[in-house]
Each structure stands twice: as structure tokens, then as C-alpha cells.
Amino acid sequence: MRLIGAILALLLLAAAPARAGQVFDTIKARGSIACGVNVGTAGFSLVGPDGVWRGLDVDFCRALAAAVLGDPNKVRLVPLTAEQRFPALQAGEIDVLIRQTTYTLGRDTSMGLRMVEPNFYDGHAFMVRADAGISGLRGLDGMSICLVPGTTNEAVTVEQLRTSAIRFTPVATPRTTDMAAALAAGRCQAAGADGSSLAALRTLLERPDDYTILPQRISKEPYGPVVRRGDDEWFEVVRWVLMALVEAEELGITSQNAETLRRTSAQPAIRRLLGVVPDLGSDLRLDPAWAYTMLRAVGNYGEIFERNLGAGSALKLERGLNRLWTQGGLMYAWPMR
User: Fold this and answer.
1) Residue 140 vs residues 1, 74, 152, 172, 198: alpha-carbon distances, Å
2) SS3 of residue 174 by DSSP
3) Per-residue model confidence (pLDDT) at position 41
4) What are the tens digits of pLDDT across the range 184-201?
5) Dihedrals phi, psi of 161, to nearest 5 degrees
6) Could you tell me the domains of the chain?
7) pTM summary value
8) Kind of pairing between the strands at 113-115 and 226-228
9) How far, in Å, CA of 122 to CA of 102, rounded?
10) If we measure between CA atoms, which residue out of 119, 125, 307 comes closest to residue 201?
């Protein structure tokens, strides 16, 4: 009987979810978070003339640092190409990958990784010269198209265009930013990437208005942070940091009014999120004021989107699917209670 009991105990232990907290503990001991980001895409992660990294993904890294370590500057940004990103995460060179990475079944189930929660919704598109007179996908027939190897963009282009009997010649470019030089030099006649990436790419061209992004989207491309499988605690921290950014926008909490609302608001949801009462941080091993500290540092999801991608940015993207669910979009925070 004792042997049977021991065997049952081992089976139950093996079936229990991993909560080792190794990544979280390593981060706390190190005093910084290693975030994998794109090598350079405006709106998501790009070094400015002042040497400062900016972008939606960069701000999410800083939000994590503020929530976990109390300081948005305690991050180490690791620029990674599409081909480098997964091996770097698998090898433990970074703690989290926040780099325009599309969530797919294969990536979530076969690589030892976990897709956390989308922080941006996009779709694959094509950019061509405006004077080419192309208004739809059929106009791409016979063209050479710049694509980044190892991305879902490459796979989607091959699948969709060949299925539609549209002939094309792929031209490999190591990074999305390399497409600008390739287009300008005439090495390819079109560029294929997610719509937001193409909008960023267009800002790098000498004459941006000479290029147009076709309106069709031929895929679903949900982006979001990725972590290694097997550490539920770190997975939960990353997920709930994103949820808190969205929840704050839903509640009208901003970087400018968070302090005042923490002192004066009687609304239970606001008091919970800002760490007044009750404590939402204990189960995540975070300070009671983790969300307040984070929001004061980087703002809510809407603020982050606006300054990096929206009307206040060089890209001037419509929020579209990235609007709150109450405004017809897909951004929806789970109840924080």
C-alpha cells in the first residue's frame, strides 16, 4: 500500500502545473528584465537619434520592469532578428520575447514556448509604388516581392498567392528595415509584411508618398509576449501586466490621473487596480502598488498605442482591431478581482 501511495503521489506531482518561479526569482536577483525586441521597427522598437529605444514593445518591457522591480528603466533590451528570436528565448538569453511575433498553434505547442496574450492585432499586407497603378492582389502577378525569411509573412505570402495562382519571385531580406533599401534600389517591386510593419517601413523611404499599402489583409497576425514553457508564475505575471494596462484604459486611469485616483476614487475596481484595497499583488508576488507604479511610468494601453502608433506618432495608424472591446475592438481585460 505504501508503494502504491508513493506512486500516486509522484503521479499527482508530475501532473501538477509547474510553478517554480525560476525566471521571476532570477529577475529579482539580477535586478533587471532581459527583453527580446525587434532590431528596429518604428512604432514597436527603434532607437531614436538620442540613443533611446521607443515603441509599443519597448513600453511593454518597461511596464514589466516597473511592475516587478519598481523601476521602468531596469530593462535590458536585446535586439533580435526573426531567425534569432526563438533560439534566444529557448536558450534563456532573454526572459521574455516582445517582438512582433505572431501567435500560431505550432509555435505555442511545439517549441517549448508559451504565447501569453495578444497586445496587438494585425494582418499581412503588401506595399507597392503608388505609380504602379495597383489596387488589389491580382496586380502583384509577376512581381518580385521582398520577404523576411522565417516569418509567418513569408509562409502566408507563398500559401495565399500560389493558391490564388498569382506568380511572384521572392526576394529574401534579413530584416523588415532592409526592404526600404531593396525597394529603393529596385531589387524588389513590392514588400510583404504586416500592415503596421509596412507603415513603419514607409517612414524610412526618402519619398514615403511614392508608396502605397494595398488595403487587403490576407492573414490574421496577433502579436504578443512569449515566454518559456514550464514557469507558470512568470507566465502569469506577464499576462496580468498586459491585462492591467488594458483594464486601466477601460477604467479611465492614465499616467496623469493615477495618483489622484489612488487617493480619492471610491470606485472598487479603481481601488483594487491601484493597490488601495484589496491587495491584487500578493498572488503574483508583486508589491501591492505594482499596477499604480507601472501606470505612472508608462500609462495605460491607449496611451502607449497613441504615442507609438497612433495619431501622435509618425505612423498615424488607426487603432482598428486594437480599440477597446467597448469601442468595437478586440482589447479586453479579464476581471481583476
Assistant:
1) 71, 46, 19, 17, 16
2) coil
3) 87
4) 899 999 999 999 989 888
5) -70, -40
6) 12-121+223-313 (3.40.190.10), 124-219 (3.40.190.10)
7) 0.84
8) antiparallel
9) 9
10) 125
Q: Return the minimum-mean-pLDDT range out of 10-19, 152-161, 293-302.
A: 10-19
Whether the Cβ atoms of residue 20 and residue 6 lie closer than 8 Å to each other: no
- Return the closest-CA partner of residue 237 out of 59, 22, 75: 22
Which phi and psi angles does 286 have, rounded to 5°?
Answer: -115, 160
What is the gyration radius of the CA atoms in the chain, in angstroms? Answer: 22
pLDDT by residue (tens digit) across 280-293? 899 999 999 999 99
Question: In one letter, which amino acid is 116?
Answer: V
Position 138, amino acid: R
Per-residue cell: 176: 523588415
Q: Which residue has the cell 475596481?
A: 269
CB 123 within 8 A of CB 220: yes
Q: Work out the burial of residue 285: count CB atoms within 10 Å of its CB; fewer than 13 is exposed, 13-18 middle, 19 or more buried.
A: middle
Q: Residue 81 contacts by C-beta under 8 Å, 6 or more apart in sequence?
A: 39, 174, 175
User: How far is Cα 41 from Cα 194, in angstroms, rounded to an integer?
Assistant: 12
User: What nine digits make up the cell of 199?
Assistant: 507603415
Q: Where are the alpha helices (DSSP H) in 105-171?
A: 105-110, 152-163
CB 249 within 8 A of CB 300: yes
Q: Where do we find the cell 517601413?
A: 201
* pLDDT score for 131: 92
